[in-house]
Amino acid sequence: MSARSTTRAGKFVRGIGVRQLRLGCGLLLFAYLVSHFLNHALGNISLEALATGLRYHVLFWQFPPVAIAFYGAALTHGGLGIWALYELAEDALPQQHVEIRGRSEPMTVRMVGSAATLAELTADTPRPLDQANPVETHSIDV
């Protein structure tokens, strides 16, 4: 391999970004879906056409290099999608903190199932249990 082709290949690989990788993986997954739905459409013609289409579909998509590329694309595409959501949340929502009893706590902390209010959390002395906000319960008589 010549030095010129090596530098062109290196430049090409360095030029591939996360968006291009996610797009390529998405196109491979889209190709699978198109072939899958075309196989379903063959079922509208006849069961023999469906069986023939299924045989070619399975032969292609279960060929080991294609299967490895497909499953790798599915994992990569899903992982990069989750990473994109994480990056979006990090960029769009700056971390805000609230002072709770002398500690700085992130605002993203949720108090599930608690009837405590922010005023109660920041108060120096908590309210007694008999004055706490009751949780509503409903009973059904059968």
Main attributes of the structure:
142 residues; mainly alpha; two-stranded antiparallel ribbon; 5 helices; 6% strand
Which helices and strands occur, and which strands form pairs?
Blueprint: H1 3-15, H2 18-45, H3 47-61, H4 64-92, E1 97-100, E2 103-106, H5 118-122
Antiparallel strand pairs: 1-2
Describe the structure.
- This protein is mostly helical and 142 residues long.
- It folds into two domains: 12-92; 97-127, no CATH class.
- Helices cover 63% and strands 6% of the residues.
- It has five helices and two strands; from the N terminus they run ααααββα.
- It has helices spanning 3-15, 18-45, 47-61, 64-92, 118-122; strands at residues 97-100, 103-106.
- The chain has a two-stranded antiparallel ribbon.
- The radius of gyration is 28 Å and the shape is flat.
- The model is unreliable at 109-114 and 134-139 (pLDDT under 50).
Short structural summary:
The protein has helices at 3-15, 18-45, 47-61, 64-92, 118-122; strands at residues 97-100, 103-106.
What percentage of amino acids are in beta strands?
5-15%
Name the poorly predicted regions. Answer: 109-114, 134-139
**Structural class category:** mainly alpha
Separation, N- and C-terminal Cα atoms: 83 Å
Largest sheet: 2 strands, antiparallel
Q: How large is the count of helical segments? A: 5
From N to C, what is the helix and strand string?
HHHHEEH
**Cα radius of gyration in angstroms:** 28 Å
CA-based shape: flat
